[in-house]
Amino acid sequence: MKIFVDTSKVSGIVAGIHSFSDEIWDSWLYKDIMLDSGKIYGLVSEYHQGCMYLSYLIGGRIDFGELKISMDETEIVQEDLAKISWNLEPINEKYKNKTVRKSIEKAIVQSGCKECFDEIAEAFYLSDSRYNIKLKNLSGERWRASAALGYTSGKKIFFAPYESSHFYHSMYDSNLFKALRFLANHGAIVLLPVGSDVFLKDKVDECIYLDANY
Questions:
Q1: So what's the pLDDT on residue 14?
Q2: What does the DSSP 8-state code read for residue 163?
Q3: Which label site among 39, 52, 100, 151 has the fewest CB atoms less than 10 Å from its CB?
Q4: Three-state DSSP class for 8?
Q5: Neighbours of 91 (CB within 10 A)
Q6: Span 157-163, mean pLDDT?
Q7: Which of 127, 131, 124, 105 is nearest to 116 (CA)?
Q8: How far apart are alpha carbons 205 and 128 in whole angstroms?
Q9: Which value, to the nearest 10 degrees, does the dihedral of the CA atoms of residues 62, 68, 73, 79 take?
Q10: What SS3 state is found at 144?
Q11: What is the CA radius of gyration of the chain?
Q12: pLDDT value at position 128?
């Protein structure tokens, strides 16, 4: 799967602004972007300079406007991305109240996932002591559990909100990157918006730099 964000048809000021809440917003100076399945991407910019905007755009959460986005050379609409995308951070998602084991087992049945629950738990390093906890109440395991649910639900794009390099450094011993690599090895696109490439550049397949050139 290849996703191409084409900005050639955008007129006027080539920039977009999106508010995610009263306190959180992001502004992206558009540029062409190509993403390939099977890769983990670091989307790198300063806070409010585009990395979260691009993550949520590819996650199907932002209207395309004048942007043209294609998948495998076929033009798509926002809903096409929304159907195959999954937010690694469940806090503001409908599935935040789902418990780990019950929701994953249900998704396995509904999607026809080939792996059983025990195989999923092993692949995403889920702790058996937390199987009955809601996703929103998990701490360091929250993104892994969310990724596991998205994978068993058949999602192909995994996106996330903005985090600092320190956040990803603190996740180094949590098996998060092993879980994200499992997703990529199974053909997913993984998007990690971050303020700096200091730590992440050695953990992802490619960094895309979004800061404006002043």
A1: 64
A2: B
A3: 39
A4: coil
A5: 11
A6: 96
A7: 105
A8: 31
A9: 30
A10: helix
A11: 17
A12: 93
Amino acid at 206: E
pLDDT of 26 reads 92
Is the pLDDT at 214 greater than 60, yes or no? no
Give the pLDDT confidence score for residue 174 in this predicted structure.
80
Using CA atoms, how far apart are residues 159 and 147, in angstroms rounded to an integer? Answer: 10
| 180 neighbors 147 (Cβ within 8 angstroms) | yes
Tell which residue, 209, 182, 190, has the closest CA to residue 198: 209
pLDDT tens sequence across 188-203:
999 999 999 998 999 9
Sign of CA dihedral 73, 74, 75, 81: negative
- With tokens 């395991």, the residue in question is 141
> Where does 94-200 have alpha helices with state H?
100-111, 117-123, 142-152, 165-170, 176-185
Structure tokens at 99: 């418990």
Q: Measured in whole angstroms, how far is the alpha carbon of residue 65 from the centre of its chain?
A: 21
Closest by CA to 18, choosing from 50, 44, 41, is 50
Question: How many whole angstroms separate alpha carbon 37 and alpha carbon 5?
Answer: 14
Running DSSP on this structure, what letter comes out for residue 99?
B
